């Protein structure tokens, strides 16, 4: 059963004539007859009684007519709603972000987006980069912002901005402005959990210099920045974090920043999405906002 058959049936019922129905549909009379014959065969009932003067609905045909009209109305309504869907930015924007961008660029982006689309509500989830990538692949989330590049054909990634990592410590530690790797590794560390892009960037940089992750004295592993900051301020250990997040604390003298000699701790923040999924209009609008704001292709 297809729409052409149903349209043919409704027009024959309306005009009580195959030839008049054919003219109204701009089809030949044999084409209309073929549609009706196919429909009757699929439904296993006779829909019309043919006389020499006109074509009349059988009781089965009369019963089916209301269903046929409802089917076409549902089709037209679906087409109309989908056309509006492609133009409407509304509902809820679900965005997953790793800790660093969630505490730096996400508030700015959401503010700009909210000013453009005030009727949209938001569900912002702070997750590790590893969790976000997994959620994007599994279609649990449309958009993610992470602190590491993704080498996966299922993921599209777009570079947003550069991010510098630094060592932070309590002022009582009296760490110098710059420090050698060997001296740094003598201290106790407060680090984010495994799966954190910040931690992975630090560990990967050490590996390139011939050190091992086991050389890092991780005494405290935490899953949020507030706890990490409090542990560092209390002098429980040092940490490696994004400079953007803690620049205010640094300027107020609450914590001390230190750079590691001969160790590059630069990374990039990325917007990621599934290469297999079509974005909703709302997510597409947020993607375009990021594209214009960060000027990526």
Automatic annotation (TrEMBL):
PROSITE patterns: HTH_LYSR (PS50931). The keyword Cell division does not apply. The keyword Protease does not apply. GO terms for molecular function: DNA-binding transcription factor activity; transcription cis-regulatory region binding. Pfam families: HTH_1, LysR_substrate. Keywords: DNA-binding, Transcription, Transcription regulation. Residues 1-58 form the HTH lysR-type domain. NCBIfam families: LysR_Sec_metab. Belongs to the LysR transcriptional regulatory family. This is LysR family transcriptional regulator. It comes from Clostridium muellerianum. The lineage of its organism: Bacteria, Bacillati, Bacillota, Clostridia, Eubacteriales.
